[in-house]
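Q: I'm building a small set of examples for a reading group on sequence design. Run inverse folding on the following structure and report the sequence directly after it, with nothing in between.
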């Protein structure tokens, strides 16, 4: 993916990514199919691993 930050991408941002768009186009995958796949992946990952909240950051 073409990202310059370590932030979490939303599905909408992922679908606008130029590299993702090129792969989708070359594989003839629609936005609906790609979105459905990403949602299934997210659900599978959430089911496999319990959520661990990030550590609290404190400033002194």
């Amino acid at each position: 993916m073409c990202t310059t930050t370590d932030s979490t991408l939303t599905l909408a941002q992922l679908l606008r990514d130029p590299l993702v768009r090129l792969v989708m186009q070359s594989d003839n995958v629609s936005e609906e199919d790609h979105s459905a796949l990403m949602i299934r992946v997210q659900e599978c990952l959430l089911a496999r691993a319990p959520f661990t909240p990030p550590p609290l950051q404190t400033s002194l």
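Helices lie at 11-16, 18-26, 31-48.
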